[in-house]
Automatic annotation (TrEMBL):
Transmembrane segments: none annotated. Pfam families: YARHG. InterPro entries: YARHG_dom, YARHG_sf. Residues 22-104 form the YARHG domain. This is YARHG domain-containing protein.
Length: 245
């Protein structure tokens, strides 16, 4: 019994050392194969940098000025000024194939989220409550107030799902409207497999100088609705609605 406990403790202590570390650079990509788990936590841009690094370490010259400047800042980079003469070895080719495969998966995941958001939007605007429940696990809870459906439709009337852009693992399309009385934020934000929709009745108009006799605006009326989703098993699933204010 004591031996069993001792062995379990040893395995627990050394388990983290056997776990593949996230790949930080491609200094060994010419001699060592990348393991899938080493890049499982990386975003598209990080994988693109690693892919380009394999070529950069062979002296590749990049048309993209930012990539060229980035690699020129590395002490190991030496521009051959003749990309046609560059040839990857067998290990580099396998690593490049793995990185490109992961890139396709991540791009497909982003497209899937946007396409499912478009489907969700269509059902919301058409008041298809049964389909919203079966396809997205989404329901309008009476406890959340009658404004739930109205505000969600307003969000979709303002944001453009065809104009969501990404930086690293975050995507965003945000619209702020100031109608001279209140500033309202309409937003869709994405991070990895999480999606958030926002209606934020956030503050008074920028033309209002203060809470005085010239305005009927009261900060007590400010509030926010936040609809939260997660991509699970290639299906966008509603998690919760958070209301503040």
């Amino acid at each position: 019994m004591k031996n069993t406990i001792l062995i379990s403790l040893i395995l627990m202590l050394f388990a983290p050392f056997h776990k593949a570390q996230t790949l930080k650079n491609c200094s060994d990509c010419a001699t060592r194969l990348i393991k899938p788990e080493q890049i499982s936590e990386l975003n598209l841009e990080e994988i693109r940098i690693l892919t380009n690094e394999i070529y950069a370490r062979n002296g590749y010259e990049f048309e993209n000025g930012r990539f060229q400047e980035y690699f020129e800042s590395k002490p190991w980079y030496s521009n051959k000024k003749n990309n046609k003469s560059i040839s990857l070895n067998a290990i580099e080719k396998q690593n490049t194939t793995l990185l490109q495969s992961r890139t396709k998966i991540l791009k497909a995941e982003k497209d899937l989220i946007i396409n499912q958001l478009k489907s969700f939007k269509a059902l919301v605007l058409a008041d298809k409550t049964n389909e919203l429940k079966t396809q997205f696990n989404f329901t309008y809870n009476p406890q959340d107030g009658k404004e739930n459906s109205k505000l969600l439709k307003e969000v979709f009337s303002k944001i453009n799902l065809d104009d969501v852009n990404y930086y690293k693992n975050k995507g965003l399309h945000s619209v702020k409207v100031d109608n001279g009385f209140v500033q309202i934020l309409y937003e869709v934000s994405l991070e990895d497999q999480s999606v958030n929709l926002y209606y934020n009745y956030m503050t008074h108009s920028k033309i209002i100088e203060g809470f005085d006799e010239f305005s009927d605006y009261h900060s007590e009326t400010e509030f926010m609705y936040n609809w939260q989703f997660e991509l699970k098993n290639k299906r966008l699933e509603f998690i919760r609605l958070v209301i503040a204010g």
